[in-house]
Structures are given as structure tokens and as C-alpha cells.
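User: Predict the structure for this protein chain, please.
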Amino acid sequence: MSAVQSGLARVQAAVARGHARVTGSALGPHQTAVVRIGFSFTWLLFLVREWPHRRELYGPDGPWNWDMARRLIDGNHAFTALMWSDSGLWFETVYALALVSALLLLLGWRTRTMSVLFMLGVLSLQNRSIFLGDGGDNLIHLMSIYLVLTRCGQVWSLDARRAAHRPDDETEPPRDTTGIVLWSVLGLALAWVQLFSDAGLSLIADGPLPGLGWATVLWGLWLVQGGWWLARRHAPGEPRTVLDMLANLAHNGALVVIMGEVCLLYASAGWYKVQGSRWQDGTALYYPLHLDYFSPWPSLADALASSGTLVMLLTYGTVIVQVAFPFTLLNRRAKNVMLVLLMLEHIGIAVALGLPFFSLAAIAGDAVFLPTAFLLWTGRKATRARDRLAARAVRLPRQRAGDADEEPAPTLTG
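Assistant: Here is the predicted structure, written as C-alpha cells:
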């Protein structure tokens, strides 16, 4: 009995430690920050590059016109704000908001709000024209939803910088006028969309989950944000502690889902490749290298395809790395080696096959498994480089001004 009781005590202690860790802190703050930065940067870069062609891709000048998109949306009930109006002004507004939200999420300004607007921008554009994309858009689509549930602005963000500059002896939280104004404006905008537009947002249907409509989701997020501010301002004791625990649970759960999504991505890609005859005989890479659409550098593609041994090694290596990656998570060193190989693979895809945004999205997803020590080292290096550049930018004008104010050197003629 004593052995059984001792074992039960150890199990209870382990469960208590796990509960305290999961509810007491948001795990992986640097990893989630890198995921936030990576996906927002990828989406922002894509929107900027496609700015001259935006109306053909997602707007009124595209071959997939508004009426065709309307019939598709009526069937699959996907969310897109571009179906609320067919005017060109509304399209330009949505595209501009998608750009701005991606930039602000990248910088980490009001990350809770910007993560929601970022998600809405991604869903609105991608669901408007579902036949565009190269595979990376699917990953951005999913991660934009998961980021809403994470506390991705704890580090490397303007929010974290603002919190760090807050005085330690401050007895109560700041009033946060900017946050109140932003919350009020978004509430009014959502009310206008709900009451005076053709959005058709439902409370219980056509949402991200069965029985949950987009109206419930958006109003719920808006009310939770307001309740969070009230609890922080007027109930800093137990209510704030409970809210922090719930936020940590949501964050840690979303982080596990993100990690599982990346593992599922590579496992499914690897095992599907194993079933293909071209991947089995080691010639699969040869064929995309001879497609004009996937050959931005024909001379490079010809050089790679000219070596049968290199094609075979790259083909088999791709399958091995993708199939083995989920299993290497059990060993830290093997996992880090696989991460390097995967990122090199995506860089090769970006250069050789001309798929930069797919590769950027995949690398941003891989970043969730980067070791904390490496991220901290990278952060310190980036901070030092930023400080040196800032010091140089400040010092040069001062030196020039100082040189102009100095007295001229005396000469023989006085």
C-alpha cells in the first residue's frame, strides 16, 4: 500500500505541476512571436507585391467576378467581407485594411485587436478568389485563425515595449485612451455591418464551428476585450487572475494546435510522396524543373536536372526529411538538425521553383519549433545591430553640426 500511495502522490504532484505550468504562464512566448512576425510579414509582402494586380486577383476586374464568387459563397458559406458590397471603393478599403493590419501585427501594436483584423483580412481576400495561391495561402489561412487565440505580443512587439516602459511603482493600470477609442470604433463598425449592410452575419450558423456563427465570434471577441479591460482596471484581484489563467489555457492550446498542424503538414506530404512512383524511383524532382511556370532561373534548373545523382538525392532526401520530422521531436538535437534541413529545402524551393511565399509561410510555421536559446541569441544580435544603426544615425548629424559650429583654425595671416 505504501508503494501505491507513493506512486499516487507522485502522479498528483506531476499533475499539479503541469496544471500550474499550463495555467500560470503562456508557453513559448518567443516562438509565438516569431510565428506572428513570420506570417504577418509573408502576407504583407504578398499584398505589397500584388498591389498593381489586386483588382484582377481579388477585385472587380478579375475573371472570377463578383457574381460567380457570390454563388460560390452561398454554397460553401465561407467568410469574406468582399461579398458585403460589389463597389470598387469597398474593395480598396478591405485591401487597404488587410495591408495595415498585417503591418501593425508585424510590429506588435495592439496585437489582440490586430490579430483579429489580420484574420478577417486573410479570410476576406482568400475566400473571395479561392483558386489563387501556391499552397502557402492555406497555411496562412489556418495560422491567421490560430494566432487570434495566442498571446503573441509578449515579446518583440510594441506592446511589450510599452509595458516595459511602464513605471514599476504604478499602483493601477493606465487608462489606455487609445485602446478605448479603438475598441469603441470597432464596436460601432461591427454594429453598422450587422444592422445596415448585406453581410448576413449569423449568430448560430455559417461560422468557423458548427452552431457558432461569425456574428457570435466577432461580438464575443469584442465583449471579451472590453471585459478584460474592465477586470484589469477595476478588479485586479481574483477576476484578473482567472482571466489570465483562461488566456494562458487558450494560448497554450493554440500553440499545441499550431505545432500539430506543422507536423501534420509534413507527415501527410511525406507519406503521400512515398506512394508516388516518381518519388519511389527518385525522379520526381526532375519534372517540375522542366516546367516553365516553375523555372524562374532556367539555367539553374537545367544545371540541377542535368545531374541524375543530384536529382535522386534531393528527391529521396525530401521524402526522408518530411516523413522523419514528426518523430525527431522526441530528440532535441535531431529535431534541430531536421529544422535546418527543412528550412534549406524551402529556400531551395523558393529559388529553384519560384515559390517564395510558399517557402516563407512554411519557414514561419517551422519557427514554432526553434529552440528558445537560439531565438534569444538572435534577438540580442538584432537588438545590438538596431542600436548601432540608431546610434550612427544620431551621431552623424550631430558631428556635422558640431563641425560647423567650431571656430576655424588659426592661420599665418590671422
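The first helix runs from residue 2 to 24.
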